[in-house]
Amino acid sequence: MPSAETSPLLNSNGNHHDPESSCDADPKKRGIVWGALTALFAAALVLIFGFHDEFANTFGPLLGLVPTDPALAALFILDRAPYHLDLPILVRGLYRNNVSAVDLAHTMPAHVDIPRLRKGKVGGFFWSTYVQCPNPKLTGEDFLNATWRVRDTLEQIDVSKLLIEKYPETFKLALSAADIQSAIGSGKIASLLGVEGSETLLPCCANTTPLAFDMSPSTHTCHNAFADSCGFEPGIIPLHHGLSPLGYTLVEEMNRLGVLVDLSHTSDKTAKDALKHSKAPVIWSHSSARAVHNVPRNGENQTDAVVMVNFAPFFVATPGNATVAAVADHVDHIASVAGKAHVGIGSDYDGIGDVPVGLEDVSTYPALIAELYRRGWNKYELGGLTGGNLLRILHKAEEVSHKLRATGALPRYDIYEKRTDL
Ligand SMILES: *[C@@H]1O[C@H](CO)[C@@H](O)[C@H](O)[C@H]1NC(C)=O
Ligand SMILES: *[C@@H]1O[C@H](CO)[C@@H](O)[C@H](O)[C@H]1NC(C)=O
Ligand SMILES: *[C@@H]1O[C@H](CO)[C@@H](O)[C@H](O)[C@H]1NC(C)=O
Ligand SMILES: *[C@@H]1O[C@H](CO)[C@@H](O)[C@H](O)[C@H]1NC(C)=O
Question: Where is the composition biased (Basic and acidic residues) (predicted)?
Answer without folding.
Answer: 15-24
